Amino acid sequence: MRALFAFAGGSGHAEPLVPIATALRAAGYAVAFAGRSDVAAGLRARGFVAFDEPVDTTGPLPEPAPLLVPDIEREERAVREVYAARIAAARAASVTDVCGSWRPDVVVCDELDFGAMLAAERLGLPHASVLVIAVGSFVRPALVAEPLNALRALGERPVVYVTLGTIFNMESGDLLERVAAGLGALPVDVVVTVGPGRDPADLGAQPPHVRVERHVSHAHLLPRCALVVSHGGSGTLVDALAAGLPSLLLPLGADQPLNAARCEMLGVGLALDAVHATPAVIAASAAALPSPDTAVALLEALVAAG
To answer: Which of the listed residues 166, 262, 281, 286 has the most CB atoms within 10 Å of its CB?
Structure first.
């Protein structure tokens, strides 16, 4: 048996796994760890195989700071918005990579390493969580279900997010239907939000890879996306740019045509005529936009030229 021990945070997340890993190793089984690089280095010094998390998911070590009044709501936000969203998305990808190279038979993880659990589910591997926190406190459906369900619903294909905001979505005619039809013909997973004033059922029956919601958290979803299709509203556009994502823009009014023109000039997006764009045109335009991988060749060329 080969057991991969995965942890999402610092040594407090890894240490509860060590006694079980030690027992398995003593019984003659292969064990390895996967997690934050500084902790993984310490585990290697103790004789364990340990794979570094390639992305810094937890940020710098804390600096000395004033004493704060305990605030359970603040800690719950950290679990929901950090561990069950941002860290989970990164860990799902990195643990999947480790499993692909090291080939474990089982994944054992700390109870906040939701990404390792998702990776195990997608790969069909059995997994177990080592519980340290009071059961039913932080790790409970009401707190973590939304971000985890958003991640679980998405497979390994590229993800395209579609939104027309919360104002212009009410004045967009059949545009969302045309966008959903066009993107639904591509080999991608699609998440469409219709806003609080519309019913997802308005878009009719959709294929399994097209999911329609009233709202999703950009913080939860955008790290998983390859493209954002939007009206070019400043809020959505800034979030897409901050996530390093290209945009397919269908401006409807206000500052959106100006934003779209600027994005085209800078090479970070492509604009279409929202009134006349057909599903076929939308699909072809989305497929033609470059992925972040394009930057690799550009940087290689820049280094070679220098």
So the answer is: 286
